[in-house]
Amino acid sequence: MSAAATEDGPALQARAVTRRFGDREALRGVSFAAARGETLAIIGPNGAGKTTLLSILGGVLAPTSGEVSRDPRDVGWVPQQPAVYGKLTVAENLRLFARLEKVADPDAVVARMLEQTGLADRAGDELGTLSGGNRQRVNIAAGLLADPDVLLLDEPSSSLDPRQRARLWEFVGALARAGTAVVFTTHNVAEAERFADRVLVLADGELLFTGTPAALHDAVGSQQADFEAAFVAFLRARGH
Amino acid sequence: MRFLLAKDLRILRRSPLLVSLLVIYPLLIAVLVGLALSKGPDKPRVAILNELPVTGGTITFGGTKVDPADYGRRLFASIVPVTVHSRAEAERRVRDGDVLAAIIVPADLVQRLQRTITLSGTGPKPTVEVLYNAEDPVKQQFVQSTIDARVADLNKAVSTKLTQVAAGYLNILLSGGKFSLLGSDFDILGLKRSKALVDSVLTRTPRGSPDREALQRVSAFAQLAISNLGLSDVVLGSLATPVKVDQQIVRGRRTPLDTYAVAVAVTLSLMLVCVLLASGMLALEREEHAFARLVRGLVSREALLAEKVVLAAGCAATTALLMTAGISAFVSLDWGRFPLWVAALGAGGLAFGALGVAIGALAREVRAASLLAILLALPIAFLALVPSGAVATGLYDAIRVISALFPFRPALDAADAALNDTGGLGTALAHLAALLVGWAIVARVALQRFS
Ligand SMILES: Nc1ncnc2c1ncn2[C@@H]1O[C@H](COP(=O)(O)OP(=O)(O)OP(=O)(O)O)[C@@H](O)[C@H]1O
Ligand SMILES: [Mg+2]
């Protein structure tokens, strides 16, 4: 945990973040905060701006206006598409990024990450020969190398099998209990309901809702069978 | 940056097909271009039908025998003669492409030549027939110009011989001597001895005698003729070759063509390896989505560009140096200048690398980047090789400006200067340094919309 983490203030805060791609407004004045140890789910339809928001929080994209409280170097970033080298082995990929992150003992960190992601036996295999799910696990491991205060995960579970998905959320839960603020996106709204403390609903670049899953359920009335139905009804009520 | 370099080298090592293509393709192109540049076309095969009677070999005039075979040998110096025995055979071989052309020497050539030389008649000029295949305009042009040049040589040789003979006649007129005509020998008195005779008669002729005045006029004329005929050799010589060609290189290279071809081949390889590698490896960072991970605080965009430029320049310069070393087995190169080779190829590599990352940043995908690199690099190289005078002046100026904006021309100048001591290495290196900065800026701007 870096010294920049403060005990009382939020671990991460976005203020009126706007992002324009030419004429298209991908984000319109999005503001929210994540506390230490809190898990936030960002949900919304395709093209809502979820990836754009995470990219800005991770320092990959610059916002057109607005600001983000944390230096991207204190933030772990796991992109939607695996950002690792296909021609390098699992261990080589992790070691390269550990060195670039200037972690104190790259080899020890790599060994720990291989252990945590259950990829120790595939350490010597080239990434290109791995299955999509295993590649995603390396991608997640690469985002965790620097032991960040804030972890951003863009659809981390989308290519994982149910067993791996369970492992992932177990792992994320442990990180959060240790004080890491976790912000993830998902199209699997049941996951958001189960694993997130709060959900942010984003549609057309606009933040429509911030609150607990139960609060979202309440917002559309109790006639909806489950959280997914409640979410769809919420979007429809807001014209999406 | 060193971790990234090690990473890229490892990726390259694991892509043997790509690397061998990257090395072999430029080598092939370079060797082909080098061959095309260093060798003129081989001597063309030309069929010769000699209808001259076996005995009618020599021409005689003024007592001098001339053997047409001498001239035949001159004509054949720049061709490979293929003897044929009939006009039909000559035509067939030309049509089949077995020979580039056929030359038919008619039976009456010697007689006609004899008649022309002895000025005894105004009969038909001696004529040699040339048959060639016009299906390939380039070949036709080549045959025509080769034969024109040979015939011009032959005409010149014949006219030189003629003037020698004419000068010989004049000399006999001047100084006297033996002269043979139609098998009989004559002794010619000559102007000088005639004047001496007249002068000696003059001394014995009394003053006031009418003969004396006439003899004095003859003597004066003889003196005038002697003084002026003395110049006849020079005058006739200048008639035989009215225009003497004195070749001088005013500007431009003095190195043999094959060492220049080495510089071209090496620079081509350097360019292709470098541009393809720099553009491809940069685009790969984006294709693997690693670019975004790298530039969020791990590596600056400038450092990433510098790493690709250094990687490409290092690999390409090494390839080019190995190639130069290989070539030095066939073409003599001065190994004492090795440090200069390294400087020239290194600087060229860096400038090509900068062009490469600019291409990679603009194209953003490996395949598009490779295509763009080839599409851009080859025409630039060929433009830079267009010699002055081959195109209109305005166009050539435009070509020079375009060539100056890309690293091929200065890299070639640098390689040529380093390999062949043609001078101008400093200027070329400065030019390359400027292009390195310029293209690096283009790449940096293009990287703005990369991720
Ligand atoms: N680099 C870009 N250039 C132009 N438009 C972009 C760019 N990146 C995203 N957009 C646009 O911004 C909007 C938001 O895209 P974003 O990828 O953030 O959506 P998302 O919520 O992550 O969608 P998905 O659920 O499909 O992943 C979309 O309309 C998209 O077309
Ligand atoms: Mg997305």
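qc> Residues A 21, 24, 26, 44, 46-52 surround adenosine-5'-triphosphate (ligand 1) (CB under 6 Å).
qc> done
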